[in-house]
Amino acid sequence: MSVKVLLVDDEYLALNLMEEYIKQLEDFIIVDKVKQPLKAIEILQNQEIDILFLDIQMPLLSGTNLLKVIKNPPLTIFTTAYTEFAVEAFELNAVDYLVKPFSFERFLQSIQKAKKLLETSKKEIILPETEKKDYISVKVDGKIRKIYFDDILFVEGLKEYVKIICSSGVYVTLERMKNMEETLPQSEFVRVHKSYIVSKKSALVLNGNMLEFEKYQIPISRERREEIIKGLFD
Question: What is the spatial order of strands in the sheet that 205-207 belongs to?
Protein backbone atom coordinates (compact mmCIF):
# COMPACT_ATOMS: atom_id res chain seq x y z
CA MET A 1 0.00 0.00 0.00
CA SER A 2 1.45 3.36 -1.01
CA VAL A 3 1.15 6.09 1.60
CA LYS A 4 0.70 9.56 0.10
CA VAL A 5 2.21 12.37 2.16
CA LEU A 6 1.87 16.17 2.06
CA LEU A 7 4.46 18.37 3.84
CA VAL A 8 3.43 21.88 4.90
CA ASP A 9 5.88 24.22 6.60
CA ASP A 10 6.93 27.83 5.99
CA GLU A 11 10.62 26.94 6.42
CA TYR A 12 12.52 25.21 3.62
CA LEU A 13 14.95 23.68 6.13
CA ALA A 14 12.12 21.84 7.88
CA LEU A 15 10.57 20.73 4.57
CA ASN A 16 13.89 19.41 3.29
CA LEU A 17 14.63 17.56 6.55
CA MET A 18 11.25 15.79 6.50
CA GLU A 19 11.72 14.98 2.83
CA GLU A 20 15.07 13.33 3.59
CA TYR A 21 13.51 11.36 6.44
CA ILE A 22 10.66 10.10 4.25
CA LYS A 23 13.07 9.08 1.48
CA GLN A 24 14.47 6.50 3.89
CA LEU A 25 11.09 4.73 4.04
CA GLU A 26 9.53 2.30 1.58
CA ASP A 27 6.05 2.80 0.14
CA PHE A 28 5.84 6.48 1.08
CA ILE A 29 5.21 9.02 -1.68
CA ILE A 30 5.61 12.78 -1.17
CA VAL A 31 2.78 14.27 -3.20
CA ASP A 32 4.06 17.80 -2.58
CA LYS A 33 5.90 20.01 -0.10
CA VAL A 34 4.61 23.58 0.25
CA LYS A 35 5.24 26.71 2.30
CA GLN A 36 1.88 28.42 1.79
CA PRO A 37 -1.15 27.19 3.78
CA LEU A 38 -3.57 28.22 1.00
CA LYS A 39 -1.66 26.07 -1.49
CA ALA A 40 -1.93 23.18 0.96
CA ILE A 41 -5.72 23.62 1.13
CA GLU A 42 -5.92 23.49 -2.67
CA ILE A 43 -3.93 20.24 -2.75
CA LEU A 44 -6.01 18.68 0.03
CA GLN A 45 -9.21 19.51 -1.82
CA ASN A 46 -8.05 18.01 -5.10
CA GLN A 47 -5.79 15.09 -4.23
CA GLU A 48 -5.92 12.08 -1.98
CA ILE A 49 -3.54 12.54 0.95
CA ASP A 50 -3.03 9.87 3.60
CA ILE A 51 -0.74 11.69 6.05
CA LEU A 52 -0.35 15.45 6.48
CA PHE A 53 2.73 16.89 8.22
CA LEU A 54 1.66 20.36 9.29
CA ASP A 55 3.50 23.29 10.87
CA ILE A 56 1.46 25.51 13.21
CA GLN A 57 2.95 29.01 13.15
CA MET A 58 2.63 30.10 9.51
CA PRO A 59 1.74 33.41 7.84
CA LEU A 60 -1.91 34.11 6.89
CA LEU A 61 -3.25 30.86 8.34
CA SER A 62 -2.03 28.73 11.25
CA GLY A 63 -1.82 24.98 10.94
CA THR A 64 -4.56 24.44 13.51
CA ASN A 65 -6.92 26.82 11.69
CA LEU A 66 -6.04 25.18 8.37
CA LEU A 67 -7.10 21.84 9.78
CA LYS A 68 -10.40 23.34 10.97
CA VAL A 69 -11.39 24.50 7.47
CA ILE A 70 -10.60 21.18 5.74
CA LYS A 71 -13.48 18.77 5.36
CA ASN A 72 -12.47 15.19 6.19
CA PRO A 73 -8.77 15.97 6.79
CA PRO A 74 -6.16 13.21 6.47
CA LEU A 75 -4.23 11.80 9.40
CA THR A 76 -2.28 14.80 10.69
CA ILE A 77 1.05 15.08 12.47
CA PHE A 78 1.87 18.58 13.71
CA THR A 79 5.49 19.74 13.47
CA THR A 80 6.30 22.90 15.41
CA ALA A 81 8.89 24.66 17.52
CA TYR A 82 6.23 25.52 20.11
CA THR A 83 4.91 23.26 22.87
CA GLU A 84 1.93 25.40 23.90
CA PHE A 85 -0.35 24.28 21.06
CA ALA A 86 -0.28 20.58 21.94
CA VAL A 87 -3.66 20.51 23.70
CA GLU A 88 -5.42 22.22 20.79
CA ALA A 89 -3.67 19.92 18.32
CA PHE A 90 -4.88 16.76 20.03
CA GLU A 91 -8.37 18.24 20.34
CA LEU A 92 -8.26 18.32 16.53
CA ASN A 93 -7.50 14.57 16.57
CA ALA A 94 -3.85 14.93 15.60
CA VAL A 95 -1.98 11.64 15.38
CA ASP A 96 1.12 13.14 16.97
CA TYR A 97 2.85 16.40 17.90
CA LEU A 98 6.52 16.73 16.98
CA VAL A 99 8.50 19.52 18.59
CA LYS A 100 11.39 20.83 16.46
CA PRO A 101 14.14 19.87 16.25
CA PHE A 102 13.11 16.21 16.20
CA SER A 103 15.26 13.19 15.42
CA PHE A 104 14.67 10.58 12.76
CA GLU A 105 13.80 8.08 15.50
CA ARG A 106 11.06 10.38 16.88
CA PHE A 107 9.81 11.06 13.35
CA LEU A 108 9.70 7.32 12.67
CA GLN A 109 7.56 6.75 15.76
CA SER A 110 4.98 9.18 14.37
CA ILE A 111 5.07 7.60 10.94
CA GLN A 112 4.56 4.10 12.34
CA LYS A 113 1.67 5.27 14.49
CA ALA A 114 -0.03 6.97 11.52
CA LYS A 115 0.57 4.02 9.20
CA LYS A 116 -0.96 1.61 11.70
CA LEU A 117 -4.08 3.79 11.91
CA LEU A 118 -4.16 4.04 8.13
CA GLU A 119 -3.90 0.30 7.62
CA THR A 120 -6.71 -0.28 10.11
CA SER A 121 -9.01 2.21 8.38
CA LYS A 122 -8.24 0.90 4.89
CA LYS A 123 -8.32 -2.80 5.68
CA GLU A 124 -10.42 -4.40 2.99
CA ILE A 125 -13.05 -7.05 3.65
CA ILE A 126 -12.17 -10.23 1.76
CA LEU A 127 -15.04 -10.91 -0.61
CA PRO A 128 -16.35 -14.37 -1.45
CA GLU A 129 -15.15 -15.77 -4.77
CA THR A 130 -18.46 -14.93 -6.43
CA GLU A 131 -18.27 -11.31 -5.28
CA LYS A 132 -14.69 -10.43 -6.18
CA LYS A 133 -14.29 -7.04 -7.79
CA ASP A 134 -13.64 -6.91 -11.51
CA TYR A 135 -12.33 -3.35 -11.46
CA ILE A 136 -9.95 -0.95 -9.73
CA SER A 137 -10.75 2.56 -8.53
CA VAL A 138 -8.08 5.20 -9.16
CA LYS A 139 -7.84 8.95 -8.73
CA VAL A 140 -7.45 10.80 -12.05
CA ASP A 141 -7.46 14.63 -12.28
CA GLY A 142 -8.97 14.91 -8.81
CA LYS A 143 -11.79 12.48 -9.60
CA ILE A 144 -12.24 8.84 -8.62
CA ARG A 145 -12.58 6.63 -11.70
CA LYS A 146 -13.60 3.00 -11.90
CA ILE A 147 -11.57 1.01 -14.47
CA TYR A 148 -12.67 -2.51 -15.34
CA PHE A 149 -10.01 -5.17 -15.79
CA ASP A 150 -11.49 -6.12 -19.19
CA ASP A 151 -10.86 -2.58 -20.44
CA ILE A 152 -7.14 -2.52 -19.56
CA LEU A 153 -4.58 -3.23 -22.29
CA PHE A 154 -1.46 -2.57 -20.22
CA VAL A 155 0.00 -0.43 -17.43
CA GLU A 156 3.15 1.65 -17.84
CA GLY A 157 5.28 2.82 -14.91
CA LEU A 158 6.31 6.51 -14.80
CA LYS A 159 8.40 6.86 -11.62
CA GLU A 160 5.82 7.60 -8.90
CA TYR A 161 2.92 7.53 -11.36
CA VAL A 162 1.42 4.86 -13.58
CA LYS A 163 -0.29 5.24 -16.95
CA ILE A 164 -3.20 2.85 -17.45
CA ILE A 165 -3.79 2.29 -21.17
CA CYS A 166 -7.33 1.08 -21.86
CA SER A 167 -9.48 0.53 -24.92
CA SER A 168 -11.60 3.44 -23.66
CA GLY A 169 -8.73 5.88 -23.00
CA VAL A 170 -5.51 6.60 -21.12
CA TYR A 171 -5.49 7.42 -17.40
CA VAL A 172 -2.58 8.63 -15.23
CA THR A 173 -2.67 8.20 -11.46
CA LEU A 174 -0.26 8.56 -8.54
CA GLU A 175 0.76 4.99 -7.79
CA ARG A 176 3.76 2.64 -7.91
CA MET A 177 4.15 -0.31 -10.25
CA LYS A 178 4.79 -2.65 -7.32
CA ASN A 179 1.39 -1.83 -5.86
CA MET A 180 -0.36 -2.10 -9.22
CA GLU A 181 1.19 -5.54 -9.68
CA GLU A 182 -0.16 -6.60 -6.29
CA THR A 183 -3.60 -5.09 -6.94
CA LEU A 184 -4.27 -6.51 -10.41
CA PRO A 185 -5.24 -10.22 -10.38
CA GLN A 186 -2.34 -12.47 -11.43
CA SER A 187 -4.79 -14.69 -13.29
CA GLU A 188 -5.46 -11.83 -15.72
CA PHE A 189 -2.29 -9.71 -15.70
CA VAL A 190 1.45 -10.32 -15.84
CA ARG A 191 4.49 -8.06 -15.49
CA VAL A 192 6.55 -8.44 -18.65
CA HIS A 193 9.09 -5.67 -18.04
CA LYS A 194 10.14 -3.45 -15.14
CA SER A 195 7.99 -0.70 -16.67
CA TYR A 196 5.02 -2.72 -18.01
CA ILE A 197 2.18 -4.93 -16.76
CA VAL A 198 -0.03 -6.38 -19.48
CA SER A 199 -3.48 -7.90 -19.76
CA LYS A 200 -3.09 -11.55 -20.75
CA LYS A 201 -6.22 -11.58 -22.88
CA SER A 202 -5.17 -8.41 -24.75
CA ALA A 203 -1.63 -9.62 -25.53
CA LEU A 204 -2.29 -11.26 -28.89
CA VAL A 205 0.82 -10.57 -30.96
CA LEU A 206 4.53 -10.90 -30.14
CA ASN A 207 6.93 -9.50 -32.74
CA GLY A 208 10.50 -10.27 -31.67
CA ASN A 209 10.73 -8.76 -28.20
CA MET A 210 7.79 -6.41 -28.71
CA LEU A 211 4.19 -7.05 -27.74
CA GLU A 212 1.65 -5.35 -29.99
CA PHE A 213 -1.56 -3.87 -28.58
CA GLU A 214 -3.76 -2.13 -31.14
CA LYS A 215 -1.64 0.98 -31.96
CA TYR A 216 0.90 0.34 -29.18
CA GLN A 217 4.13 -1.65 -29.00
CA ILE A 218 5.86 -2.44 -25.71
CA PRO A 219 9.04 -4.41 -24.90
CA ILE A 220 9.29 -7.57 -22.85
CA SER A 221 12.17 -8.50 -20.56
CA ARG A 222 14.89 -10.34 -22.48
CA GLU A 223 15.90 -12.24 -19.34
CA ARG A 224 12.35 -13.54 -18.80
CA ARG A 225 11.38 -13.92 -22.46
CA GLU A 226 10.73 -17.67 -22.39
CA GLU A 227 8.77 -17.46 -19.14
CA ILE A 228 6.65 -14.58 -20.46
CA ILE A 229 5.92 -16.29 -23.79
CA LYS A 230 4.87 -19.46 -21.96
CA GLY A 231 2.56 -17.48 -19.69
CA LEU A 232 0.95 -15.53 -22.53
CA PHE A 233 0.84 -17.91 -25.51
CA ASP A 234 1.04 -21.52 -24.26
Answer: 205-207, 210-213, 216-219
